[in-house]
Amino acid sequence: MTRFTTSRRALLGAGALLPALASPALAFPDQTVRVIVPWNAGGLADVVMRAIAPVMTASLGQPVVIENRAGANGAVGTQAVAQARGDGHTLILANAETHAINPLVYPRLAYDPVADFTPVTIFARGPFVLITRPGLGATDLNAFLAMARARRGQLTFASWGIGSTSHLAMERLMRSTGIELLHVPFTGAAPASTAILGGQVDVMFLNAGPAEAIARDGRARILGLGATERLALLPNVPTMAELGTPVEAANWFGLLGPARMPAAAAQRLSAVAGEAVRQPAVQEIFRTQAAIPVMMTPEETGRFIAADRERWNLVVRDLNIRLE
């Protein structure tokens, strides 16, 4: 199985930063801060959170520990945080699935994405690239689209779950180009990309950093980038828009706490996370994963998530996706 990891040295370097990050002692936090990552270990969400956790630990003066609790497109771990005490010591690593898409596709979702949470920050964005299995024969995006039109409904695409960003990004591509592919959902990005590597599935949208790692030695081919501009990690990969197919595909990563979390705690956590993504060691990890640092206040985070949910609502409503 393909493993998406970053180096031990880089992660240790992220924690070995100048003590200047530490702020004066406050009542918060007075115990360990637990961050639930509602996805399997090794994926991009897990890697970016583990990159900033040591820096946040140094700043807060309390351990920031990570707990992976995957399931139901991120809903299992997210529900656990919704039910936690609102004292700021339990957080969710949120993304588009947990707080923008799940509320639209699960009619009986066990949490309310607005009422049950306190926005803290968004600290990273992760653009996707379109990759194909080795040996497919399509050397560029236009060749792939021509192949898909000629073999309508015969080519397959992987995703990390029905209603996931990888699934909906491909639906956008199909709608905008008139192609039709067969969906093969998996339980995570790692098994989905493993199926691409093994030739069991033809194509998928994958986070750009992990995709670069598996394409570097020819195990997969990158056809285009679903971002507005090229990435430093993939300078020779054109955006989809450059190739005449302007489909954006990406995810975002942030921190939210339970409802009734003190505003002072949210503000402090937001500031500490913002300081973390400015650190060179963290930025190097982000660079190798094609993650783009972002710094948002709690207020900006709330507005951004609301706008993102509305943006995805147009896609979900058009496709009439509903999950039990």
Describe this structure as you would to a colleague.
It is built from eleven helices and ten strands. With 324 residues, it is an alpha/beta fold. The chain folds into two domains: 8-126 and 251-319, D-Maltodextrin-Binding Protein, domain 2 (3-Layer(aba) Sandwich); 127-225, 3-Layer(aba) Sandwich (D-Maltodextrin-Binding Protein, domain 2), CATH 3.40.190.10. Strands 1, 2, 3, 4, 5, 6, 7, 8, 9 and 10 form a ten-stranded mixed beta sheet that branches. The longest helix is centred in the last third of the chain and has 22 residues, at 298-319. The chain is globular, with a radius of gyration of 19 Å. It starts with 7 loop residues before the first helix and ends in a 5-residue tail after the last helix. The relative contact order is 0.20.
**What would the average pLDDT be, to the nearest integer?**
91
Task: Specify Rg, calculated over alpha carbons.
Answer: 19 Å
Q: Return the domain count.
A: 2
CATH superfamily of the largest domain: Bordetella uptake gene, domain 1
Structural class: alpha/beta
Question: What portion of the residues fall into strands of 2 or more residues?
Answer: 15-25%
Taking the sheet with the most strands, its summary is: 10 strands, mixed
Number of helices: 11
Signal peptide: 1-27
Organism: Sediminicoccus rosea
Family: Belongs to the UPF0065 (bug) family.
Protein name: Tripartite tricarboxylate transporter substrate binding protein
